[in-house]
Amino acid sequence: xxxxxxxxxxxxxxxxxxxxxxxxxxxxxxxxxxxxxxxxxxxxxxxxxxxxxxxxxxxxxxxxxxxxxxxxxxxxxxxxxxxxxxxxxxxxxxxxxxxxxxxxxxxxxxxxxxxxxxxxxxxxxxxxxxxxxxxxxxxxxxxxxxxxxxxxxxxxxxxxxxxxxxxxxxxxxxxxxxxxxxxxxxxxxxxxxxxxxxxxxxxxxxxxxxxxxxxxxxxxxxxxxxxxxxxxxxxxxxxxxxxxxxxxxxxxxxxxxxxxxxxxxxxxxxxxxxxxxxxxxxxxxxxxxxxxxxxxx
Length: 297
Ligand code: ATP
Ligand code: PLP
Ligand code: MG
Ligand code: NA
Ligand code: MG
Hints:
Blueprint lengths: L5 E9 L5 H11 L3 E10 L10 E3 L2 H13 L7 E4 L5 H17 L4 E4 L4 E2 L2 E2 L4 H10 L5 E2 L3 H8 L6 H14 L3 E9 L2 E8 L8 E7 L9 H15 L4 H25 L17 H5 L8 E2 L1
Parallel strand pairs: 1-2, 1-4, 4-5, 5-8, 8-9
Antiparallel strand pairs: 2-3, 6-7, 9-10, 10-11, 11-12
Bound molecules: adenosine-5'-triphosphate (ATP), pyridoxal-5'-phosphate, magnesium ion (2 copies) and sodium ion.
The site of adenosine-5'-triphosphate (ATP) has 20 residues, from strand 9, helix 7 and helix 8.
């Protein structure tokens, strides 16, 4: 294990604001990683605003970029990170990219945030669920679904911590040795459940972190969370609980700052167009102060 790496991050780009690559690249760089972003879309702003404009990269255009790298022998990566993907053809191309990069580096870590929806609602085409389930999950090293996505990927209904742990076990059997359900609400309480299967067939080590829910809706936090989990779990490969504590602690500090700033400026913190205070939180990204502790099951 090494405390750094070279990450290919295939995610959205927004001109203004912080989602996708805009919310993942800067923190990974701050943690010492070389990050090579491929922008799967370029939009004016995130889709929580009343309107947005921009371009979508297609599978062939992604192939072109990879071919350019390949022609110059530039396909060595330690990590691939993917987030929101809007079409089956783009997702299929990503699978080809992963296989190509694994041929160059068999130790490639693929961190997949299977972004499909939230709070009971799917926001990608239904046919993507099947592709994630059958083809993407088996290739992933670490998976970071939310509660809804974990349900879609396993067919389980998650109503308890037990169900969440069971969902993680099912996902391990399908491929990834690390699974983090990044947000799950049980009895009004927000928590994260992490699971590390250190060897195939072994019982996974599981933990939870209770998260103080901040009364506002944020965008870009899922993307930031997965980037931080990649960054910290590579530095602490045998301590997923520690990696998750560090990531959650950064999120808490950053969201508190974001809320305070908006309130001070007289904005409504429940508006769906809040932008996280990412750049202002660089100290909390580099050096999170761990207040929320993981509890082992
Ligand atoms: P995905 O990107 O797969 O949809 P997700 O739904 O888990 O993942 P978020 O809901 O943005 O993404 O949550 C990610 C993390 O952001 C949580 O683990 C938590 O640390 C933090 N977070 C997001 N919203 C809040 C909130 N209102 N209060 C406290 N923490 C929050
Ligand atoms: N990518 C784009 C272009 C978006 O508009 C959004 C949300 O609006 C996201 C990604 C998702 O952000 P997150 O799940 O991190 O909140
Ligand atoms: Mg969510
Ligand atoms: Na997630
Ligand atoms: Mg999300």
